[in-house]
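Lab notebook, bench 4. The sequencing result for the construct came back, and we need a structural model before the next group meeting so we can plan mutations. Quick request posted to the team channel:

Model the 3D structure of this chain.
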Amino acid sequence: MPRIVHALRTLFDTARLYLGLGALGVICLAWTPFAALLAPVLPAARGRPLGRLAITLGFRLYLNILRGMRACSFDIGALDTLRAQGPLILAPNHPCLLDAVMVISRLPNVACIMKGALLRNIFLGAGSRLAHYIPNDAPLDMIRRACREMKGDSHLLIFPEGTRTIRHPVNPCKNSVGLIAKRSGVPVQTLIIETDSAYLSKGWPLFRKPAMPIHYRIRLGKRFDPPEDVAAFVAGLEQYFQDEFEKSSHINPLVTDPLTAVSGRLG
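Done. Here's the predicted structure in token form:
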């Protein structure tokens, strides 16, 4: 009997994994033809809010599907308080591929800095172009576009580590976030993303089954004023993330080995 129960649980978890991944693909592909048609013809003033709202609703639907399957739980309501606060640079740590999905699902006016290759991706490209997301492959243009977006009251989502975390507890932070803050004069709101699983972290195979349910939480961290000294600001930002994870009593941050799940569960 224990073997049968274990086999059934494994089958159930595998189904949740594939259904979860498939749901995101279906949601993105369903919007892609509409976004591809609208992006070249709609002026930015109309296309930008439409594209961002569609992505927010699509990502929110996806997270609700994961909740409904009891594959994941999400404690991310703290983000809602940022909606009416005007332009902010949102600077989260970056443990996994779901980080941007979680943030954007709660905030419908976000300009996201993303890899340039994703703007040509069949799943994300058309929607990202309609939403006027910003590619990171031309740094000076990226900074100029980021500053313009925030003049229009957008939030800006940028991951200071530049890529998913591979060094405990955070990677070295890049100068980009400090340069954008200095040039735009917009404060940097840190976001602390906590999880008890290494699922979809750097190096995690896409179809490797994690232990489920996975728990995610996002809490608001310190808000930094725009810097004068970019290098000192970036060093202080990195130290802040390190200190936050060292004193956290709720969860252990991602470990160095991305294939090793983190111990502990959210209360």
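Confidence is low (pLDDT under 50) at residues 249-267.
Will bring this to the meeting.
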